[in-house]
Design brief:
Elements: E1 2-7, E2 21-26, E3 29-35, H1 41-46, E4 55-59, H2 71-79, E5 87-91, H3 93-105, E6 114-118, E7 124-126, E8 130-136, E9 144-150, E10 155-157, H4 159-164, H5 171-177, E11 182-184, E12 187-189, H6 191-194, E13 195-197, E14 203-207, E15 225-229, H7 234-240, H8 249-258, E16 263-267, H9 276-287, E17 293-296, E18 302-305, E19 311-315
Parallel strand pairs: 3-4, 4-5, 5-6, 14-15, 15-16, 16-17
Antiparallel strand pairs: 1-2, 1-18, 2-3, 7-8, 8-9, 9-14, 10-13, 11-12, 18-19
């Protein structure tokens, strides 16, 4: 299970960073998922190995432009990719209205069904290989986090239990392994009783803008990787003003430490933090408060989570 940073800047792009967008994918599964779609996201996708043809769903955290201005062009390009499968768009109602208006004004006809799912009435849904649920955050406008939990996991047979219960081998073994309940010699056998997951579901949370990390309390348990904005250092946020509705490096690092989140990806940096010196400062401040594995987002960066939920950097940039 992997996440690739397609954009990591707050508000406006910089020479090195595009605005918010993140891709979630699995190497052994074709469908992939996009969280946020700032201006220029489709250009970032062209630098990756991802294809709009296989994009299954787009999740928009909130209505601010640096998180959704890239949608019209990306959707139009998806229409030219030859895809016929439905594309799901989970977003605030106002973003859905924005896309609908653009499509009408530009006479955009798509060869696939674009399914609108208002985030206000969305709680959780199952897609091809994961379940996605939402969590309300605190920002100047309604903002949300998305929790991705892996669902399509290979099952293994509990051979010892099957043998102990006198269940001989046969075609029913394959059906049990596929998660089906079967009848064997007059007995009803439940797949859950005779199989187990080859690995435990991997879980990550990707957040929209959020000034109060504690909003995540209801979904943070069991999360392996947390992706959260760190728009400012605390001293700079005090200068700019808390009316911005953003978090700071110190608060989110302390929260992740308190909740024992093993991996933390900080992102959505203010354009004022250009260059390695600034990133080194952010890293130092974060590591003073968080002892888990810390990543600072860079465009093109890819983090892979293996089947033991261990996260590692596999690509540092495009």
């Amino acid at each position: 299970m992997q996440i690739q940073v397609l954009g990591s800047s707050s508000g406006t792009p910089t020479r090195d960073r595009n605005v918010s967008a993140y891709a979630v994918f699995r190497e052994d599964q074709k469908p992939w998922y996009l969280v946020d779609c700032g201006e220029g996201t489709q250009h970032q996708i062209l630098k990756s190995a991802l294809s709009l043809y296989q994009l299954e769903a787009i999740f928009i955290t909130h209505k601010h432009g640096d998180h959704c201005y890239g949608l019209p062009g990306l959707i139009a390009s998806a229409g030219l990719s030859g895809r016929t499968e439905p594309l799901f768009l989970i977003a605030p109602k106002e973003v859905l209205e924005f896309i609908d208006s653009v499509m009408q004004m530009t006479d955009l006809a798509l060869p696939f069904e674009l399914t609108f799912m208002p985030i206000e009435s969305y709680s959780s849904n199952a897609f091809s290989w994961l379940k996605v649920q939402t969590c309300a955050l605190k920002h100047r406008v309604p903002s949300y986090a998305f929790k991705f939990t892996e669902t399509r996991i290979q099952r293994k047979l509990n051979i010892e239990k099957l043998s102990a219960d006198g269940v001989g081998s046969g075609p029913h073994y394959n059906r049990l392994q596929r998660g089906e309940n079967v009848t064997f010699e007059g007995r009803d056998l439940r797949s859950d009783d005779y199989t187990f997951l080859a690995w435990q579901p991997r879980v990550m949370v990707i957040c929209g803008d959020n000034e109060a990390p504690k909003c995540l309390d209801s979904i943070i348990e069991g999360v392996h990787l947390l992706v959260h904005e760190a728009t400012f250092l605390a001293a700079d946020l005090r200068k700019v003003g808390f009316h911005t509705g953003h978090s700071d490096v110190e608060r989110i690092s302390e929260y992740a430490q308190k909740k024992r989140v093993p991996y933390l990806l900080l992102t959505h940096f203010s354009a004022r933090y250009g260059g390695q010196v600034c990133m080194d400062k952010i890293q130092d401040v974060a590591q003073q408060r968080y002892t888990g594995r810390l990543f600072l987002a860079a465009d093109g960066m890819t983090i892979a989570m293996d089947k033991t939920a261990h996260c590692a950097l596999v690509r540092s940039c495009f």
